[in-house]
Amino acid sequence: MGKSITKNIWSMIVINLAILITTLTLHELGHAITGRLAGCVSAKAIIYDSSSPNPYTELLCEHESKPTYLAGLVFTTIFGLSFLFFDNKPQKMFSLIVIGFGIFLSALDMVELTQMTAIKYLFIFIGLTSLIIGQVIYGILNAKETIS
Prior knowledge:
- It is a single chain.
- 71% of the residues lie in helices and 7% in strands.
- It has helices at 2-37, 67-82, 89-92, 94-105, 107-114, 119-147; strands at residues 42-46, 56-60.
- Strands 1-2 form a two-stranded antiparallel sheet.
- The radius of gyration is 17 Å and the shape is elongated.
């Protein structure tokens, strides 16, 4: 029994890392692809830059394109909703986890879009709430599946 709990915890850690990296990549790709579609000359999704603590997207545009700020959230939400098509209930909970990460990652984008600094706290709160609820439900469902 102890080994299965340890195994479940490690699998949750690995799955969460994979979900975070994938969601982060899709978020930045969303900005870059939307930027190119909006007419930007150049678009780069930078996932790792040793001179920056955060991933970012470089866009070279003639004019600012507001849809690029929303694109990260839209791409990650679509990805998150895709988990609802799984047959397994614990796997469906990945939807809440991915969407939570996506909302959390979009907090600063929403500040740029709305020019309201306080909105980032709302997005951080909603994102973390979705993420935590998804984690808890996933853990409970996964434990029930392991026991039965």
